[in-house]
Amino acid sequence: MRARLALGTTAAALLAGALLPTSALAHGLVVREDLPIPESLFGVGAAVVLIVSFVGLALLWTTPRLEDERWRALPGGVGRLLGAPHVRRPLELVAGLVGVLLLVVVVWSGLAGVQTSAANFAPNFVYVVFWLGLVPVSVIFGDVFRAFNPWRAVGRAFAWIAGRLSGGGLPEPLPYPDRLGRWPAAAGVLAFAWLELVADGGDMPRTVAIATLVYSAATFLGMALYGVDAWIARAEAFSVYFNLFSRVSVFERRGNEVGVRRPLSGLSSLEPLPGTVGLLMVMIGSVSFDGLSGGQDWQRIVPALQDAFGALGLGPARTLELTFGFGLVATIALVTAFYRLGIAGARSVGGRLGQRELARAFVHSLVPIALVYAAAHYVSLLVIQGQAVGFLASDPLGEGWNVFGTAAATIDYGVLSQSAYWYMQVGFVVAGHMAALTLAHDRALALYERGRLAVRSQYWMLAVMVGFTILALWLLAQANEG
After folding, report:
1. CA distance 127 to 442
2. Phi, psi torsion values for 151, nearest 5 degrees
3. Please, are residues 426 and 46 in contact by the beta-carbon 8 Å criterion?
4. Is residue 466 within 8 Å of 460, Cβ to Cβ?
């Protein structure tokens, strides 16, 4: 009876998602043209795809298939060539130098350049090329950021030089505390979201440069205490963030060879360290708030919240900042509560794992959701505003330079049609939640002794996935209304 109730609730949620207003599939940066078929069919189609996927998984996917990555080296000696130390190390050295150079340019242009975000290299590079552009690169090619990571490059270079100067007598770093897990990375991503979405003047070049310096200092301190590799792998926010998305890729280097693995299987091998659930909640919640804050519903709430914070005697800028900060934290808390509710439902069907263990066991299935949330909300920003780096690279300070001869370039706003953006957004949302369903189902088969229990637990996880789908569509509608 309980399982039937969960399935009925899920079906109702799917139908509700299908019947959302047709504007629910839009993004704030895109105004759609007339579509060749009624928009409501896309909502119905998304619901049908999720239902059919769930039924198909329950009937046809009866044993775990993603727990084993089935990694194999690229054929013809290509994998050994790409991973060979004499090839890989020079490439990593060059990539690290490029990363350090870009870090210096960001700080330099942010401090010394014109203090207009649209005409300065720093905010455009950090918020668009770096934060958004590296996501699809990671999904396609794997953990590319590891090679370009400027903090890793500086830390390794410093350790090498200090070791040579001291004759190898440097003290061993402290063991990284297990209880910290990925919590520092979660805090770092939250701080970045706060700077981008909440902080007054967070897009100003000087603010971006100062934030970069502060983050760099904190990262170097962490690496000095716990070692470069340990801090990069677990605590450095951007390394952990892009590594999560790189696990979607089929490419991975193991030892001195580059090979391929089953799609999505890299996520199944994600170690569920403390803070991993918190990190995913921040990732999904921050993008959710970004969509929410662009809509009319949020704008109707803002005055009341400002009045409440204004009663504390703060100025208008600070009250607005606190209002948006409250919205960001509240959205993350609501996303967390919804995920925990689904986990509590999965726990109710039985099994040997408690809610905390189940939350960690299924957290890898949220990575595709975090990915498609970001993709659906920011694809137009990346495609359009990403072009600005072409001419800003020639004039990073906004002083009228033309270093690379591209200063006269302009943004082509018609590179994709408005309807194309909309199709892409819907496709991202549906495909990502199908991937999440697959990962959750596969993990359930590995966790539960009986296949029937695994399927029953997934009624609740399906409800979670459907809920996130409806939320994604509603947030796109909010952004469009704003």
Report:
1. 35
2. -70, -40
3. yes
4. no
Which token pair is 420? 């194309």
| Domain boundaries defined on the chain | 1-70+289-482, 80-261
Rounded Cα distance, 48 and 209, in Å = 47
Contacts of 24 (CB under 8 A, 6+ apart): 43, 473, 474, 476, 477
- For the CA atoms of 186, 192, 194, 196, the dihedral, rounded to the nearest 10 degrees, stands at -150
85-103 pLDDT, tens digit per residue, is 888 899 999 999 999 999 9
* Residue 82: CA count within 13 A, CB half-sphere: 15
**What are the distances in angstroms from CA 134 to CA 24, 151, 386, 456?**
27, 16, 12, 37
**274, burial (CB in 10 Å: exposed 0-12, middle 13-18, buried 19+):** middle
Alpha-carbon separation of residue 100 from 150, 155, 332, 462 (angstroms) = 5, 11, 33, 44
Q: Which residues contact 291 (CB under 8 A, 6 or more apart)?
A: 28, 377, 475, 476, 478, 479
CA-closest candidate to residue 72, choices 329, 254, 338 = 254
Q: Mean pLDDT lowest for which of 343-347, 367-371, 421-425?
A: 421-425
**How far is residue 121's CA from residue 286's CA, in Å, rounded to a whole number?**
24
- Per DSSP, 83 falls in state H
Give the 3-state secondary structure of residue 64. Answer: coil
Q: Please give the single-letter amino acid code of residue 234.
A: R
List, in order, residues 6 or more apart from 239 with CB less than 8 Å away. Answer: 145, 146, 149, 152, 185, 232, 233
Q: What is the pLDDT of residues 411-425, one digit of tens each?
A: 988 888 877 877 788
